[in-house]
Every structure is written in structure tokens, then in C-alpha cells.
Write a structure and sequence with these properties.
Layout: H1 3-12, E1 17-20, H2 26-38, E2 42-45, H3 63-73, E3 78-80, H4 87-97, E4 108-115, E5 124-129, H5 139-156, E6 162-166, H6 177-192, E7 197-202, H7 204-208, H8 210-216, E8 228-230, H9 234-248, E9 251-258, E10 264-265, H10 273-286
Helix pairs in contact: 1-10, 2-10, 3-4, 5-6
Length: about 290
């Protein structure tokens, strides 16, 4: 079973409630009806005017603030927004109303990219991080982004992450300050997560294609088999996910927000009802970390 095919069944077993603060949008209303009918989550749909003062966040008035307040108080297990609100508005509401998890200093995001078989192992899901939040991450931030991507992948995908820190260089084939930044990010990540297979700097083909990895990085523990791709900056990550989505026909789910104290996830404003259903299931799976 593919990743997206299994999302609903896995979320259904958890019995979570998810708030949707954009219920006036027909795509959101359709998605909520699908989720309720299939029993994937218990949708709590909020519309304009649903601004109960005891739960609304002053920094995010309206249904979005109400939904964040409900999540903070435990009335719901997660929130999905972004069909109408911008990513900046969703992030601002999350930071003001929920804050970051203890020990986390950087909010970031991942896209889950379901791709067709490209290395003989059948369809796969790759994590692209960070493609939505941090424009020019410093080494400390690269390490933090990778750490959160690993945590979220374990919750949502359920496999063992194999992390590649990407660059235009593979293990010293080129130099320059951008390469040094990536190497330092990897060093910091290894200190923080010594149990996770990781390597860098790796070019995209060396990270993903076994035949290329055997030539460029034969001793690497993840080259040719990476499933978490840590990009050196937002430009590269955002361009890459859109190219893979549009040219290779990949399913792109996200940006899934990483680092908040409770599951609040963003949507593309071009999201379909199907996209919203899938992100709701992901949000439900992320809520299991609070049990």
C-alpha cells in the first residue's frame, strides 16, 4: 500500500479531532464531509463569526484564532488551515498561540513527496525540508530542521529516516562557503542525533540514485538510499518540490509545520479537497506525539 493510500486507515485508528477554521471555503467543507463520512478524523468546522472570546487568540482573531485556542486548551487534537490564510498568517498564529516545543528554536517545514518507483523499490515517500519557512538557514538551523524532519517522518511515515544534507558538492568535490555551511550543519546534526544515518554534503543524484552513489560516494551510509533531503536553503527546496510535483507527477503534501508545541499544519492556497483530507490525516498522526 502506498503512503497516501494508507494515511486514512492509520489516522482512523487514532480517533482524533481536527479543527478547520476556513469552513466557508467549499474545498474545506467538502474535505470535512469526506473525513466525517469515512471516519478518518472528527472534523470541527469553524466559519466566519466563530470567534468565542474564551478561546480566540488575540494575535489571530477570527476562526483561525478560535481554532488555535481550541488546540491549546485540548478541545481538539490538531488544526489544518491555509486554504484561505497565507502561510505567514498560519505560522504567526501558531507561534503566538502555541509556541515552540521545549528545546526547539527554529520553526520549519517538510513536504512529503510521494513519487513513483525510481530506484527499483516501488513507490516511495521522500521528505523535502525546509521548503516553506526558513529562507537562508545557518548551520545550527540546518541541524534543527533535519532533527524535526526526522521526528515528524517517524510519526507520519513510520520508517527509519536516512538523511542527506544536499549541496552542489559531494564529499569534497567542490568548495565554497555554502558547502562549508552544509558540512557544519551535518556535524551539528550528528551531535544531536547520533542514532540517525546521515551524510553530506551530497549532490541530489548521489543522495538518491544507487548507481551514482557507488561512483561518487561509495562509503556513504545513506548515499543512493536517502529518504530525507535537507536542502541548503528555501530557494532550492521550494523550486525542487515544485519541479518534482509538476514534472514527475509526485503527490506533494505540505508544508507540514515542524517544531510547534501542537499539530498545526498549513495548506497551499491551491489545495484540493483531497489534499486537505490527506493533510488532516497527517495532522492526526502527528498528534500521537502528545499521548
Amino acid at each position: 500500500m502506498t503512503f497516501t493510500a494508507g494515511l486514512e486507515a492509520r489516522a482512523r485508528r487514532l480517533g482524533r479531532s481536527i479543527a478547520f477554521p476556513e469552513g466557508d471555503d467549499p474545498r474545506v467543507a467538502e474535505a470535512a464531509a469526506i473525513l466525517a463520512r469515512r471516519g478518518v478524523v472528527r472534523p470541527v468546522v469553524l466559519e466566519a463569526g466563530d470567534t468565542a472570546a474564551d478561546a480566540a487568540d488575540a494575535e489571530a482573531p477570527g476562526p483561525l484564532g478560535r481554532a488555535v485556542g481550541m488546540l491549546r486548551s485540548g478541545e481538539v487534537d490538531g488544526v489544518v488551515a491555509g486554504a484561505v490564510h497565507t502561510t505567514a498568517e498560519v505560522i504567526r498564529a501558531g507561534l503566538k498561540g502555541l509556541g515552540l516545543r521545549p528545546g526547539v528554536r527554529t520553526l520549519s517545514s517538510s513536504f512529503f513527496m510521494e513519487v513513483d518507483d525510481f530506484r527499483g523499490a516501488g513507490p516511495e515517500v521522500l521528505s523535502f525540508t525546509d521548503a516553506g519557512v526558513v529562507p537562508e538557514p545557518r548551520p545550527r538551523q540546518l541541524a534543527a530542521i533535519a532533527s524535526e524532519a526526522v521526528r515528524v517522518r517517524r510519526l507520519v511515515v513510520g520508517d527509519e529516516p536516512r538523511v542527506a544534507f544536499l549541496s552542489y558538492s559531494t564529499l569534497g568535490s567542490a568548495g565554497g562557503r555554502p558547502v562549508e555551511q552544509v558540512r557544519e550543519g551535518l556535524r551539528r546534526f550528528r551531535e544531536a542525533c547520533p542514532d540517525v544515518a546521515a551524510d553530506g554534503e551530497l549532490q541530489g543524484d548521489a543522495a538518491l540514485i544507487p548507481e551514482v552513489a557507488r561512483v561518487k560516494a561509495p562509503l556513504s551510509p545513506v548515499a543512493g538510499n536517502a529518504n530525507v533531503l535537507v536542502f541548503p536553503g528555501l530557494d532550492a527546496a521550494n523550486i525542487a518540490y515544485k519541479l518534482v510535483q509538476r514534472l514527475a507527477g509526485a503527490v506533494a503534501l505540505g508544508p507540514i509545520l515542524q517544531g510547534l508545541s501542537a499539530p498545526l499544519n498549513d495548506l497551499s492556497r491551491g489545495a484540493s479537497a483531497t489534499d486537505i483530507v490527506r493533510v488532516a490525516a497527517i495532522t492526526a498522526l502527528m498528534s500521537s506525539s502528545r499521548d
